């Protein structure tokens, strides 16, 4: 049961308010967490769309690779220009 003395109540209130000096820290932590999440998503996107794939210097090289893949039975490939490395990659994703 909490104390009914005014001095004890004031002390409890001061301790409580000391934990909430400013909401700026709370917002800063939330923003930092969001920035970290965004950087993780960007890294995952880069790994999926660039780093794990074979890089071709020109579109013609990528299209030649598509022809070779079709000769071995792989159909439905397309090439795309990569924004991360500036090269060309193959994908089966039908945009």
Major sheet characteristics: 2 strands, antiparallel
- Average pLDDT, rounded to a whole number, is 87
Strand order of the largest sheet: 1-2
Shape: rod-shaped
What is the CA-atom radius of gyration, in angstroms? 28 Å
Number of helices: 3
The N- to C-terminal Cα distance equals 66 Å
Helix-strand string: HHHEE
| Unreliably modeled segments | none
How does the helix and strand content classify structurally? Answer: mainly alpha
Helix content: 55-70%
Domain count: the total is 2
Count the E strands: 2
Q: What proportion strand?
A: 5-15%
Layout of secondary structure:
Layout: H1 6-18, H2 24-51, H3 59-71, E1 78-81, E2 88-91
Antiparallel strand pairs: 1-2
Written overview of the protein:
The protein is mostly helical and 95 residues long. It has 2 domains: 8-52; 54-95, no CATH class. The chain is built from 3 helices and 2 strands, in the order H-H-H-E-E. A two-stranded antiparallel ribbon has the order 1-2. A hairpin with a 6-residue loop joins strand 1 (78-81) and strand 2. The radius of gyration is 28 Å and the shape is rod-shaped.
């Amino acid at each position: 049961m909490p104390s009914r003395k005014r001095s004890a109540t004031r002390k409890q209130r001061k301790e409580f308010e000391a934990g909430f000096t400013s909401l700026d820290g709370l917002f800063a932590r939330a923003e930092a967490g969001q920035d970290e999440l965004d950087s993780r998503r960007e890294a995952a996107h880069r790994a999926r769309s660039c780093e794990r794939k074979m890089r071709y210097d020109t579109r013609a090289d990528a299209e030649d690779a598509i022809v070779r893949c079709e000769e071995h039975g792989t159909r439905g490939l397309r090439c795309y220009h990569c924004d991360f490395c500036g090269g060309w990659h193959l994908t089966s994703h039908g945009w």
